[in-house]
TrEMBL record:
PANTHER family: ADENYLYLTRANSFERASE AND SULFURTRANSFERASE MOCS3 (PTHR10953:SF102), UBIQUITIN-ACTIVATING ENZYME E1 (PTHR10953)
Species: Neiella marina
Residue stretches in coiled coil: 78-105
Top-level taxonomic group: Bacteria
Gene3D superfamilies in the record: NAD(P)-binding Rossmann-like Domain (3.40.50.720)
Name of the protein described by the UniProt record: Molybdopterin-synthase adenylyltransferase MoeB
Length: 249
């Protein structure tokens, strides 16, 4: 049962037929893993904390830099030089002290990814590293945990949701087979408009909340956002018979 304080705080959720008190209690009992606290992880973290996700795990090994502040809206100038997980923990706790925050100031690797994913209900991949994305995908696929993947560069964004609770779901490696090489273009050398990250991150947070509530979610689709023209494209992702991650499932 919600307390009086929680009833007031989440009153706009409670008015929704799709959420209500039962749905809010589901959110408060949920465990979400947010990997990457940069341009995507910042707004996604704010929305998840505000929504009352009961246990929010934050993973990042970087420190806040001045150049981050153009798009990473979770931080302030006074945070420059501080570990992102610590600055994020402070900001999100100030936003909602009703939730539990678990921080991991470490890189995600093939060794620690399965442990990070263990017991989690939904994972948000907000990283900007191709190799790490594949590590996260493999860990989620193995654990049967839904994965919400986002990316953005320049004036373009993309979103994909893989619900690994479905044994027939394709995975990120079906869409982008591992090549062992990082893409030549990234935010550091090609730039990105901050609000594009906000759009994708908001959709990541929305997809996670819908998954937790049992609401319909577009899965196994690649959604592409062209911010310059305001256009969206959507493509179905099919499971690859030769996928190194999920073909043998």
């Amino acid at each position: 049962m919600l307390t009086d304080h929680q009833t007031l705080r989440y009153s706009r959720h409670l008015l929704l037929q799709q959420v209500g008190e039962d749905g809010q209690l589901k959110l408060q009992q949920a465990k979400v893993l947010l990997i990457g606290l940069g341009g995507l992880g910042s707004p996604a973290g704010l929305y998840l904390a505000a929504a009352g996700i009961g246990e929010l795990h934050l993973v990042d090994h970087d420190q806040v830099e001045l150049s981050n502040l153009q798009r990473q809206i979770l931080y302030r100038e006074s945070d420059v030089g501080e570990d992102k997980v610590e600055a994020a923990e402070r900001q999100l706790s100030d936003l909602n002290d009703d939730i539990e925050l678990v921080i991991h100031a470490e890189k995600v690797t093939a060794n620690n990814a399965p442990e990070l994913v263990q017991g989690i209900d939904v994972v948000l991949d907000c990283t900007d590293n191709f190799a790490v994305r594949h590590v996260i995908n493999a860990a989620c696929q193995q654990a049967g945990v839904p994965l919400v993947s986002g990316a953005a560069i320049r004036l373009e964004g993309q979103l994909s949701v893989f619900d690994f609770r479905d044994s027939q779901s394709p995975c990120y490696a079906c869409l982008y087979p591992p090549s062992g090489q990082e893409p030549k273009l990234n935010c550091a050398n090609s730039g990105v408009i901050g609000p594009v990250l906000g759009v994708i991150a908001s959709l990541q947070a929305l997809a996670a909340i819908k998954l937790l509530l049992g609401l319909p979610v577009d899965t196994a689709k690649l959604q592409l956002f062209d911010a310059l023209h305001g256009d969206w494209q959507q493509f179905a992702i099919t499971r690859s018979a030769n996928c190194p991650v999920c073909a043998a499932r």
